[in-house]
Design a protein that fits this description.
- The complex is a heterotrimer of chains A (276), B (261) and C (261).
- Chain A has 276 residues and is mainly alpha-helical.
- Chain A has one domain (2-36, 58-269): MetI-like (MetI-like fold), CATH 1.10.3720.
- Chain A is built from 11 helices and no strands.
- The longest helix of chain A has 37 residues, at 66-102.
- By secondary structure, chain B is of the alpha/beta class.
- In chain B, the strands form 2 sheets. In chain B, strands 6-7-8-3-9-10 form a 6-stranded mixed beta sheet, with helices on both faces. Chain B has a 4-stranded antiparallel beta sheet with strand order 2-1-4-5, with helices on one face.
- In chain B, helix 3 packs across helix 4 (122-132), helix 4 (122-132) packs across helix 5 (149-161) and helix 5 (149-161) runs parallel beside helix 6.
- The longest helix of chain B is centred in the last third of the chain and has 18 residues, at 179-196.
- Chain C has 10 helices and 9 strands.
- Chain C has helices spanning 48-55, 91-94, 101-113, 117-130, 136-140, 149-161, 179-196, 207-211, 231-236, 241-249, and strands spanning 4-17, 20-33, 37-41, 63-70, 84-87, 167-171, 199-204, 216-221, 224-230.
- The N and C termini of chain C lie far apart (49 Å).
- Classes of the chains: A mainly alpha (276), B alpha/beta (261), C alpha/beta (261).
- Chains in contact: A-B, B-C.
- The B-C interface holds B 35, 41-43, 149, 178-183, 186-187, 190, 193, 205-209, 211-215, 230-232, 235, 245-259, 261 and C 37, 43-44, 148-149, 177-183, 190, 205-209, 211-216, 230-232, 235-236, 245-247, 249-259, 261.
Chain lengths: 276, 261, 261
């Protein structure tokens, strides 16, 4: 596929894929590499990293394996980050496209709804949602998406408003294309690239909000998450900073990887320049 | 035989606090197989008229009777069905196509939408259409932005004739082309009209080109039709101020050039 | 009108895009005589715009220039704005949308004539009057978007000649305008350069348009200079086939109608 090869050849795409390879591999092979429950006590407490070959990254206050936690935590962060971003992009694109194409009252109403959600900071919205509905992975995903869908909605609408006036949309109407087909074949594919470019910011934000929620103790208590690990390390920050730093590095690599990958994807998806 | 009868078309656009009249009580007729040229300075309403004719926008008043039916009264599926007989070619061929389309997509869409050719017969229909407009059938797989401007405009014409329309509106269709390519495209249009009896509404600000290809000419200015008649009459003996200004403004090869003016 | 203001010695320009070099101009040898009106004629891909940009030192970064442009008429390298004025096809390209007209024209005057703001604005107002732009005082305080395409182009011309340059380069200045506005602008431009003795290099695809005022014509085709000559001679007795084709493709009111009436 042309897109895939262009993606690999661009420096951003390649950097992104390399950086993301680690957390993705970790997420996929977590159960193979560390079949035991990462929340179970594996050894003595507060073993420093790189000292004991049985615990390459050390153990925490309760003696849980940090590396196991890191690897399993990748799963939660990535899963929640991606799922939340996907939900946000889907809802946002749909609402934005409908608003842009429908115009009039429908457009006005939808935009007021978007604004209502935009006013509340994403983290607070997620906090409120999770506090009310309880902390489980699906709820966390929805909570994050609730704050993130407004960006894609605005952007999709702006793109659609511009595309709507273009000659090729008029041409599609002239040949008798059904409005639904125009929306999905002519408008949406050309409106998506800038919205997809936003996806990096959303995934990154989602990963961080999930970490924040877990840090505050509002994440799913039955899964290991990097946020929870950072929270745990808070208590011994002076004596054993590695407990917070290591999952923090995991977050940095993931967010950077997502960012670069999305840049590369956007460049690869862009339609090639025209012959003059 | 009268194919198109436009009666009292008016259209006003709100611009800020004001209402800008783009069309004021426009009426005209067009017979089968004939070409009506529509000329006027920019802002005269030619493009608005084209858009109203094609029902891309609905007029505030007036009727567009095409093949015996008032198009302004049609909606939805009925209107879409009527589009088989009425097509358009735009000025900028590059923006007239979905940037992600191939030549085959562009020509195949109308064939598919109006069920003229099923999936299996479509490639041969597309090849035949490409050949008719002077292009190699091998072009079908190319992307729209990979071919030249002249080739793209031929694809636009192939797309327009795909459903066998009775009328094609050409909105500045040759204005953006090189002069050598322009002559070829005009010849193609004339030959298509001869073979298939298609009527054209040829819109341009270039009076010379309009005169060369049209049987009759209508001159527009400020949203109205200010003059109307057979081509030779309108250009040899213009009666309106706009007509006179347009005639005077036509660049003609001046063999006495240089230093003289 | 005998000394050259600029001489192109084997000028060539290549554009580099993604590892592939594309030749826009190949070995052009051309003299531009002081005070003459030289028309550069070509279709798309001929290199005519590249020539204009090369003369004005406006080539983009990925352009590789070969050959030499010497300026015997100036005795030194030209200074943009003072020695050379440039008019673009799209007036929006030369006018800053967030500055008033007065600021933009006065800036040229200030920079190259060393006048203070008030004197510069007064000169700007005079220029606008010279270009037949009404209500010049109000115009000075207005913004480009408030004007039509034709008016914007007049303003762009005013800015281009504000510092009294010896050479004025116009790159298809009227191609985006309708024929009536085009005729007015050509008339105006012709008058201005003849009054001031400015050398005019006028780029266009329309040989008939050029024939109305050019002293000499240079024809370009696919990066090469095909033919040069005094306008009248070239039009009545073209030596090259391509020049002949260009002249034949030109359509004016004497061109016979393509449709049987």
């Amino acid at each position: 596929m042309k897109t895939v090869s262009r993606l690999i050849r661009s420096p951003e795409g390649l950097a992104g894929l390399i950086l993301l390879a680690l957390p993705i591999a970790a997420a996929i092979f977590a159960n193979v590499l560390f079949p035991a429950d990462p929340l179970s006590i594996a050894g003595p407490a507060l073993v420093p990293p790189f000292s004991d070959p049985a615990f390459p990254l050390g153990t925490d206050r309760l003696g849980r394996d940090v590396l196991a936690g890191l690897v399993h935590g990748a799963r939660a962060s990535l899963a929640v980050g991606l799922a939340a971003a996907l939900v946000a992009l889907a809802i946002g694109s749909l609402v934005g496209t409908v608003a842009g194409l429908a115009g009039g009252l429908a457009d006005e109403v939808l935009m007021r709804v978007v604004e209502a959600f935009q006013i509340v900071p994403g983290l607070l919205l997620a906090l409120a949602f999770v506090s009310v509905l309880g902390a489980s992975l699906p709820v966390v995903v929805l909570a994050i998406a609730l704050g993130a869908w407004t960006g894609p909605a605005r952007l999709a609408r702006a793109e659609v408003l511009s595309i709507r006036e273009r000659d090729y949309v008029a041409s599609a109407r002239v040949i008798g294309m059904h409005p639904a087909e125009i929306a999905f074949r002519e408008v949406l594919p050309n409106a998506l690239p800038p919205v997809l470019a936003l996806s990096s910011v959303i995934v990154a934000g989602a990963v961080l909000i999930e970490a924040a929620l877990s840090f505050l103790g509002l994440g799913d208590p039955n899964t290991v998450t990097w946020g929870a690990m950072i929270a745990e390390g808070r208590n011994v920050l002076r004596s054993a900073p590695y407990l917070s730093i290591i999952p923090g590095i995991g977050l940095v690599i993931t967010v950077l990887g997502v960012y670069f990958f999305a840049e590369g994807l956007n460049n690869a998806l862009a339609v090639r320049g025209i012959r003059s | 035989m009268m194919l198109l009868s436009v009666e009292g078309l008016s259209k006003t656009y709100p611009s800020g606090a004001r209402q800008v009249p783009a069309l004021k009580d426009v009426s005209l007729t067009l017979d089968r197989g004939r070409t009506l040229g529509l000329v006027g300075p920019s802002g005269s309403g030619k493009s608005t008229l084209a858009r109203v004719l094609l029902q891309l926008v609905k007029p505030d008043a007036g009727s567009v009777v095409f093949r015996g039916t008032d198009l302004c009264a049609l909606r939805g599926a009925e209107l879409r069905a009527m589009r088989k007989h009425l097509q358009m070619v735009f000025q900028e061929s590059l923006t007239a196509f979905n940037p992600r389309a191939t030549v085959a997509d562009a020509i195949g869409d109308p064939l598919r939408i109006h069920r003229i050719a099923g999936r299996r017969e479509r490639p041969s229909h597309i090849a035949a259409l490409l050949e008719r407009v002077g292009l190699s059938p091998a072009l079908a797989l190319r992307s729209i932005h990979e071919i030249s401007g002249g080739q793209r405009q031929r694809v636009a014409i192939a797309r327009a004739i795909a459903t066998g329309p009775d009328l094609i509106v050409l909105d500045e269709a040759v204005s953006a082309l090189d002069v050598t390519v322009r002559s070829q495209i005009l010849e193609l249009l004339v030959s298509l009209q001869r073979d298939r009896g298609i009527a054209y509404l040829f819109i341009s600000h270039d009076l010379a080109v309009v005169r060369a290809i049209s049987h009759d000419i209508a001159v527009m200015d400020g949203g109205r039709i200010v003059e109307h008649g057979p081509s030779a009459e309108v250009t040899d003996n213009p009666k309106s101020d706009t007509g006179r200004a347009l005639v005077a403004a036509v660049p003609r090869i001046n063999y006495q050039a240089g230093g003289a003016r | 009108m005998s000394l050259p203001i600029a001489i192109l010695h084997g000028l060539s320009v290549r554009y580099r895009a993604g590892g592939v070099a594309h030749a826009a101009l190949s070995s052009v040898n051309l003299e531009i005589l002081e005070g003459e009106r030289l028309a550069i004629i070509g279709e798309s891909g001929s290199g005519k715009s590249t020539l204009a940009l090369a003369l004005a030192s406006l080539l983009p970064e990925n352009a590789v220039q070969g050959g030499v442009i010497s300026w015997p008429g100036l005795g030194r390298e030209p200074v943009a704005g003072r020695d050379i004025g440039f008019i673009f096809q799209d007036a929006s390209a030369s006018l800053n949308p967030v500055l008033t007209i007065g600021e933009q024209i006065a800036e040229v005057v200030r920079r190259h004539k060393g006048l203070g703001w008030r004197a510069a604005l007064a000169e700007a107002q005079e220029l606008l009057a010279k270009l037949r732009i009404p209500r010049s005082e109000q115009v000075l305080r207005s913004f480009p978007h408030q004007f039509s395409g034709g008016q914007r182009q007049r303003i762009a011309i005013a800015a281009a000649i504000a510092a009294g340059p010896k050479l004025l380069i116009a790159d298809e200045p009227t191609s985006a305008l309708d024929t009536i506005v085009q005729a007015e602008i050509i008339r105006l431009l012709n008058q201005l350069v003849r009054e001031a003795g400015t050398t005019l290099v006028f780029i266009t695809h329309d040989i008939a348009l050029a024939s109305g005022f050019a002293d000499r014509i240079a024809v370009f085709h696919q990066s090469r200079l095909v033919e040069t000559g005094e306008a009248r001679r070239l039009l009545t007795d073209p030596k090259e086939n391509y020049t002949r084709r260009l002249i034949e493709s030109s359509i004016d009111l004497t061109t016979p109608s393509m449709v049987a009436s």
